[in-house]
Amino acid sequence: xxxxxxxGAPETKVAGAAFEEFNRxxxxxxxxxxxxxxxxxxxxxxxxxxxxKLARIDRALDEAKKRLDRVALDAARPKLAVETKAKAxxxxxxxxxxxxxxxSGETSGLKALxxxxxxxxxxxxxxxxxxxxxxxxxxxxxxxxxxxRAIASVREISANQLKKAFSISGPASGWxxxxxxxxxxxxxQLAELTFPAMELYAMPAATQTLLDDAVVDIEQWIAEEVDxxxxxxxxxxxxxxxxxxxxxxxxAYTKSTVAAWSWGKTAYVPTGAAGAFPASNPSDTLVDxxxxxxxxxxxxxxxxxxxxxQSLIRKFKDSTGAYLWQPPAAVGQPATLMNFPVVEAEDMPxxxxxxxxxxxxxxxxxxxxxxxTGVRVLRDPYSAKPYVLFYTTKRVGxxxxxxxxxxxxxxxxx
Length: 414
Known about the structure:
With 414 residues, this protein is of the alpha+beta class.
């Protein structure tokens, strides 16, 4: 297999080195696993030393993948300073007023700006909006860190919730003569989906010395402080959230078998073994999962699982002896399973009895993330003296918008 190696600038050389390290680890993993499978075929069991060797290499492969992911993530984080040349006059004014507020609590500039915009709900109780470039940068960073946000549909709204009509049965359609009678579509069923935007917060702390430093970009500092925290919180909610003061995760809906599926439920395919893949032809369950999805969704499908589950699936082969799991073809690209991208979401459950540890689907059509425009910051110099706290909030919602677009793999018998 030929892989793309990036060279040139110091950053790309680091990425190339991490990518080479990962590929070497995967080659060692394949050799050790092939040796284990050969021993099983000839002796009906694998040597203990070989099993321990494979486990060590598997852990090393995971560590190499983590380093590669960090390098790719750092490369995907552009600095806010890149946008300063393109700022409009109002954005420049907003940035200056926001810096004055962050440094000293001066609010007159921000109040004047929000008065021009005829906005309400700001002030000492609710905080003030961060400049638009900072908000855009924060959302870009979160898209790079948050696995589900990266593959889902994202919609910006200005209200507290989004209501969306969805056709359960599809619009009436058919062939008809030029002067023939058209059906009125009486059988069409519409459902209204509601996606409320819930408040997500983080509270980074700064010293007054940091705030007074003219070189420090306060907007960038806030984005860097809260992006990982926001992404971690929303990532967990997009998978397992119960919808109470948080988004509804795609694993939180009522589930049913594919045969008994109906609108409002997520369908699953059972492995046939409690808390495990079947002992014989375990990869067949992955094939069943893929083809449980309709062709229109399958072409944009992606697997979602955590690192531990992926570690187990890495050992699977097809009938020709080729590994089903393949490493990324280049830095910043995902690994693939059966030629479909693999998205690592650490909030997916580990494999256990009746767990839903693998999801497959077209998440762009299946899951919707709702962002209410505006990120607010409330300066608090009193609660943690001598530090200044910045209570930063944004509103996020999420839920399934097409229940036919996502399928689950249940590690159970029924």
